[in-house]
Write a structure and sequence with these properties.
- It is built from 4 helices and 9 strands, in the order βαβαβββαββββα.
- The longest helix is centred in the N-terminal third of the chain and has 18 residues, at 12-29.
- It has a single domain, classed as Rossmann fold (3-Layer(aba) Sandwich).
- By secondary structure, it is α/β, with parallel strands linked by helices.
- Helix content is 22%, strand content 29%.
- The structure holds guanosine-5'-monophosphate (5GP) and magnesium ion (2 copies).
- Residues 43, 75, 98-107, 130, 151-153, 157-159, 188, 192 line the site of guanosine-5'-monophosphate.
- Its EC number is 2.4.2.8.
- This is Hypoxanthine phosphoribosyltransferase.
- It is an enzyme of class 2 (transferase).
């Protein structure tokens, strides 16, 4: 286990099993369709890479990169688009894939933004859900795990850009981010 982590919350094997189930469910729901799977960089890339390979339907892939306005750990709800989609999603079935829904502000903003572009349908898939901190009720169609209000890293999720490569999802030691909070603002870095 990594030195900066408190304990493993979800093992590689638990994650893989759940991702397979999500893949089956999504494949059933989209039978006969070819959705555009949209990953939110960078946190969702590892989850999305595994998820699309558990699908039995054809898909296309695209990505967006976003960052919250301001450096504070309290998300303002206003999201800046750092990289937009390459596809025009008008008329497409879009499946938005995100690592975690916490306050819901990021996904809520993205959802409303994408809906203005006229997709045939828009659904949301998140690996993790921290319902304890929700501020906006964003409809999540597919969720891997509900987790407690702890700051987690690994399997794509970072703290200041680190730990994304870890295979398990782990709870970060509180001292790792409280020690830095004087000069660096938040557990979440830019670029989700
Ligand atoms: P929301 O807008 O739902 O509050 O924030 C979602 C974003 O906050 C996620 O995409 C992620 O970047 C970050 N985030 C929220 N909780 C965690 C967490 O426990 N660990 C990590 N690494 N990022 C988190
Ligand atoms: Mg982050
Ligand atoms: Mg994210």
């Amino acid at each position: 286990m990594h030195n900066d982590t408190e304990r493993v919350l979800l093992t590689e094997q638990e994650i893989a099993a759940r991702v397979r189930q999500l893949g089956e469910e999504i494949s059933r729901d989209y039978a006969g369709k070819e959705p555009l799977v949209v990953g939110i960089l960078k946190g969702a890339v590892i989850f999305m890479a595994d998820l699309v390979r558990c699908l039995s339907i054809p898909v296309r892939m695209d990505f967006m990169a976003v960052s919250s306005y301001g450096a504070s750990s309290q998300s303002s709800g206003v999201v800046r688009i750092l990289k937009d989609l390459e596809h025009n999603i008008g008329g497409m079935d879009v499946l938005l894939v995100e690592d975690i829904v916490d306050t819901g502000l990021t996904l809520n903003y993205l959802r409303e933004n994408l809906l203005t572009r006229g997709p045939a349908s828009l659904k949301i898939c998140t690996l993790l859900d921290k319902p304890g901190r929700r501020r906006v009720n964003v409809p999540v169609d597919y969720n891997g795990f509900i987790i407690p209000d702890e700051f987690v890293v690994g399997y794509g999720l970072d703290y200041n850009g680190r730990y994304r490569h870890l295979r398990d999802i782990m709870i970060l030691k509180r001292e790792v981010y409280t020690a830095k909070e004087d000069n660096e603002n938040c557990p979440a870095d830019d670029g989700s």
